[in-house]
Design a protein that fits this description.
By secondary structure, the chain is mainly alpha-helical. 71% of the residues lie in helices and 0% in strands. The longest helix is centred in the C-terminal third of the chain and has 19 residues, at 224-242. It starts with a helix and ends with a helix.
């Protein structure tokens, strides 16, 4: 398949430090649109786009481009994204963009369990982004249940709220564990309690989930929206039981 000359020009703009910033933005948008449309990118186009996203301010201003780049299967992009995530000086926006890239269909299937576990350990503060990556890898090729439980429990015991929120997401990928769900519905954070109850209401097995939420409802809940979420989830579960 031939490469559109305009895309070659777009790569040149991204690779040129002296190019007008507005033209570089246009070049990045053109490459992202080409990726979404299934067009062939010029050699080095995907890498140039990742460099621009992570160094040119694109991570914050063009939130859709990391998702577009995630669709392109390119080992060089995967390797570069992993190398960048090993740095400790990343901004939150760049880190989120890199996780979005790696969670795409072009990269997630190639990440092995050890790499995923390393990312979870290193970036537990970005628990929800990490959990979405784990879910993407699991959906694309499957992760061993023992490894999923290890990741889930590691996030659950973290002192960081976002990590424990990630544990709820990963918990939905593992075989149902009443003990785990009892722990997260009693979490000190209202955000974690609310998300855990919501997850049980949507996907939890009704008899066990009804029991867990009912037991929690008998205890004081200082945050009214969390209590409302409990009642809503209980209603959904009871309707599922009755259907």
């Amino acid at each position: 398949m031939t490469v559109d000359p305009l895309l070659v020009r777009a790569v040149g703009l991204l690779s040129s430090d002296g190019a007008d910033p507005c033209l570089r933005d246009c070049g990045a948008a053109a490459l992202g649109h080409a990726a979404d449309s299934g067009m062939v990118l010029p050699p080095g186009g995907a890498v140039a786009l990742l460099v621009w996203i992570t160094t040119g301010g694109g991570a914050g201003r063009f939130w859709m481009l990391p998702e577009s780049l995630g669709r392109i299967s390119d080992p060089s992009v995967t390797a570069m994204a992993l190398d960048l995530l090993r740095r400790d000086d990343l901004s939150g926006e760049v880190r989120a963009a890199l996780f979005m890239v790696l969670s795409g269909d072009g990269h997630a299937p190639g990440l092995d369990d050890l790499t995923v576990a390393e990312l979870v350990r290193t970036h537990e503060a970005a628990g929800e982004q990490v959990a979405r990556l784990v879910a993407a890898v699991h959906e694309s090729r499957g992760i061993d249940q023992e490894k999923l439980v290890e990741i889930r429990d590691g996030l659950r015991t973290s002192t960081i709220v976002d990590a424990r929120l990630g544990a709820v997401t990963v918990g939905g990928l593992t075989e149902f564990s009443p003990e785990f769900w009892k722990q997260v519905v009693h979490d000190p954070s209202a955000r974690v309690r609310s998300e855990a109850v919501r997850a049980l209401g949507k996907e939890g097995p009704p008899p066990e989930s009804v029991r867990i939420i009912s037991e929690r409802l008998h205890l004081p809940e200082p945050v009214l929206p969390v209590k409302a979420e409990m009642l809503s989830a209980l209603g959904r579960l009871l309707r599922r039981l009755g259907s």
